[in-house]
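Need a sequence for this fold. Nothing fancy.
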C-alpha cells in the first residue's frame, strides 16, 4: 500500500517514516511539510539518512490522493480540515491528532476549547478509537482511525483490566503521569528548552488535562458505567517515555492472584503488552528504560491491602506506542497486515 504522511517533519512524522520505511507492505509515497518543502527528509530526520531519498512536498489533497492510506501527524484542530475530504474520496485515514477521538461533539468545547461543538458528528461516530487491545474487532476495514493520545494510552492500558473486570471502586482513580520532553513536539514552549527541562520534575495542567477525557471515555465503556479520573501529568528530565501510576481504591479486598487473572485475561494474547510484576531481576515493575524505541507496553501492579489500594503501572515510549507505532499497529489490523508488521523491535539494553 502507498502511504502519505501529512505533517512529516515533526517528531511523530519522523517516527512514522522510520517505521513505514521498514514495514515491507508499505511504500512511502509522500511526506509533506510546508516549512521544509523541497528539502530532503534526512536533513530534518538525520537518522533516516541512507534509508530514503524522499523530499518533503507541500501538503495538498492532490498529494494525498496518490496514496492508499494517509497518516495525519498534524496539530490538534488541523486534522478536522483534512479528514472530511479524505473520507469522501475513500482513503483510509489514520489521524494522530485529537480531532476524532472523543465521541461526544460537545466534549471538544470542554476539553479542547473549541468555540463550538464538533462540526462532523457523523464522522465521530464512524471513527474507530485506534487502541487495538480494546477495539481490535472494530478495526478491520476501518476507513477512519483516531489514534489515541500518548498519556491517555499509558493510563488506559494500566487501568483497562480493572475497569473491565469490575475492580474499580466508587472513587475516581488517581492517575499520576510522568512524560518526556518529546511529548511537547518538535517546536515546544520555552519550558521545554534544555535549560528549563534539565533536572526537572514539574507538574503541568494538574487538573482538567485534555487526555483525561479519553481515559474516562474508554474506562466508562469497559466498566459499563460512568468513570471519572483525577489526572495530573508531570514533565520530567527524559527525552522519551511515559510512566503512568494509577491509584485505585477498591470496594472490597483484592489480592494479587485476582489481579494476575484480570491482566492475563485482558492482555494474555497481545503481541505488544508485557506484564511486569517480578520479585527478582532488574525490572520488577514497568520502567520506560525497557520499552524505548518500541511499540511495547509494560503494565504492572501492586496491592496495598492496608488501604484496599491497587497501584497500577504502565510504561511506554510516547513517540512509538504513544503515537506513530500505535497508529501503524491499528493500520495493520485495519488493512489486514500482521498486527506487528514493521513494529517487532527488541528494546536495546543498556541505553
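Here you go.
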Amino acid at each position: 500500500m502507498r502511504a502519505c504522511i501529512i505533517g512529516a517533519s515533526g517528531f511523530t512524522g519522523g517516527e512514522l517514516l522510520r517505521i513505514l520505511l521498514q514495514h515491507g507492505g508499505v511504500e512511502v509515497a509522500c511526506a509533506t511539510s510546508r516549512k521544509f518543502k523541497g528539502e530532503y527528509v534526512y536533513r530534518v530526520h538525520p537518522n533516516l539518512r541512507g534509508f530514503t531519498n524522499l523530499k518533503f512536498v507541500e501538503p495538498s489533497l492532490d498529494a494525498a490522493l496518490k496514496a492508499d492510506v494517509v497518516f495525519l501527524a498534524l496539530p490538534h484542530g488541523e486534522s478536522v480540515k483534512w479528514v472530511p475530504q479524505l473520507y469522501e474520496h475513500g482513503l483510509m485515514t489514520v489521524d494522530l491528532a485529537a480531532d476524532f477521538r472523543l465521541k461526544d461533539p460537545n466534549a471538544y468545547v470542554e476539553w479542547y476549547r473549541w468555540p463550538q461543538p464538533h462540526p462532523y458528528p457523523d464522522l465521530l461516530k464512524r471513527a474507530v478509537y485506534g487502541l487495538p487491545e480494546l477495539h481490535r474487532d472494530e478495526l478491520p476495514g476501518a476507513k477512519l482511525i483516531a489514534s489515541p493520545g500518548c498519556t491517555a494510552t499509558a493510563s488506559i492500558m494500566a487501568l483497562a483490566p480493572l475497569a473491565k473486570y469490575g475492580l474499580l471502586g466508587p472513587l475516581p482513580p488517581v492517575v499520576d503521569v510522568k512524560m518526556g520532553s518529546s511529548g511537547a513536539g518538535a517546536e515546544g514552549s520555552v519550558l521545554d528548552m534544555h535549560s528549563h527541562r534539565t533536572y526537572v520534575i514539574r507538574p503541568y495542567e494538574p487538573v482538567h488535562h485534555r487526555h483525561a477525557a479519553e481515559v474516562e471515555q474508554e474506562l466508562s465503556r469497559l466498566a459499563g458505567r460512568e468513570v471519572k479520573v483525577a489526572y495530573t501529568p508531570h514533565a520530567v528530565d527524559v527525552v522519551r517515555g511515559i510512566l503512568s501510576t494509577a491509584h485505585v481504591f477498591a470496594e472490597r479486598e483484592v489480592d494479587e492472584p485476582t489481579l494476575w487473572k484480570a491482566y492475563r485475561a485482558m492482555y494474555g494474547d497481545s503481541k505488544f503488552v508485557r506484564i511486569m510484576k517480578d520479585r527478582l531481576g532488574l525490572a520488577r515493575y514497568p520502567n520506560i528504560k525497557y520499552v524505548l524505541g518500541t511499540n511495547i507496553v509494560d503494565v504492572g501492579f501492586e496491592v496495598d491491602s492496608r488501604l484496599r489500594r491497587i497501584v497500577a503501572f504502565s510504561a511506554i515510549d510516547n513517540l512509538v506506542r504513544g503515537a506513530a507505532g500505535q497508529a501503524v499497529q491499528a493500520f495493520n489490523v485495519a488493512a489486514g497486515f500482521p498486527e506487528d508488521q514493521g513494529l517487532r523491535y527488541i528494546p536495546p539494553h543498556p541505553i
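For context: The first strand starts at residue 2 and ends at 6.
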